[in-house]
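Name: Chitooligosaccharide deacetylase
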Amino acid sequence: MPIVHSPGTRVAVSLGVDFDAHTVWEGSFGFSSPSYLSRGEFCAEVATPRLLDLFRKNDIRTTWCTPTHTMETFPGSIEKILHQGHEIAAHGCRHEKIGPLEEEEERSLLDQQMELHTRYVGRKPRGYRSPSWDFSPNTLSLLEEFGFDWDSSLMGRDFEVYRPRPMHKSESGPHVFGEPSSIIEIPVSWCLDDFPALEYVSRVNPGLASTDVTYQRWKDHFDFAYDEVPNAVLALTVHPQTIGRASNFMMFRRLIDYMRSKDGVAFMTLSEICDTWKD
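Structure predicted for Chitooligosaccharide deacetylase:
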């Protein structure tokens, strides 16, 4: 198996936090009104301390995928996250749309991320999560060029870490895969993301789904991984401004309690999961 957990571990769980704050509204949706940006303020000022307290009480270390604009705007939050031993990974500059970028534009943005990440975190990031989980045809090779160890943006597996391959698309024949990357891919899924189900965006995303339905969906994924997949990895993605709202937060806390009740569950950062890879 490519992933080898420590003895006694059946499932490695990542509670990945996308600390987008203002950037998801401006970068993904083009919304910049004070109303939308106040939700980003809630993300940093209210929900982030709420999540940090929950993780501290449960002795859980997490990975916060953070745009550099969030680091510049809320540096005090970054200090608190680091002080509690959490990891901070790259997540774009302003939650920009990656897919349409030309290679040099994307390389320039990665240059900025490396410089600002080092300034605010004190070291270069080991991992990357693309804004909105989008890739350009050049993203994978650029991540290799910049020396990243892992990515967590793709969906080629569900509970298994893998090495992604570049794909050469053809209009008249089969698509052809290249050689496996040096990057370790820790896969994600929209099923395991709080934003589509729970975050209301006028005329874009209805959100506001039942927290009971969301809880059951996430629990079913966990149970399947626990019962059916050897050396499984479960990567959840939450956004403070979404999961930090009271009813969502209570559901999330209930899920953590359930997962902690099972033997052989290890809560790990994405870099810790990456480090369990054995070729």
